[in-house]
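Collaborator request, handled under Task 6.
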Amino acid sequence: MGWCLVFLDNIRRRFQDCIADCGLIEVSLLGPFTWGRGRGTAHFVMERLDMAFANARWMQMFPYFKLFNLIALDYFVQLFSTSIEADFLNFSSFPSSVRTVHNASLLAPFTEGEFKTSMEMHPDKSSGPKGLNLAFYQQCWPIVGGDVFA
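Structure tokens returned to the collaborator:
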């Protein structure tokens, strides 16, 4: 587990160095928090994972701006909605090609064991949420695994 903390600290430090090298300043966001842990317990924690940056010149040009993280939500709601009225829930006219037993298997939540099996892939094949690759999850599973299935 010590290696995992060093790994995370290294990523954080490299990110901060990159931001400093580019001359960027973090811009505060208004709106709801984007991550929570321990909901319903006395140890509930909420964090804002979204970040935005601008350079000094931009900040001078727009000194009174406010940035809301709900803009992205509104954008995606608009992007994936339609003004066409249709009954998409009526599939009775389509013949079923998936048997009940297979459908139950497809709809079942994936298990921790299935997830761990998927972690046998090459550690640098693809990045996951927040750009963390499989190597992160492989090395840090004892720390983050409980949150993945919370």
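The cover message to the collaborator said: "The beta strands are 24-27, 29-30, 35-37, 45-47, 52-55, 67-68. The chain has a mean pLDDT of 76. Please let us know whether this matches your experimental observations."
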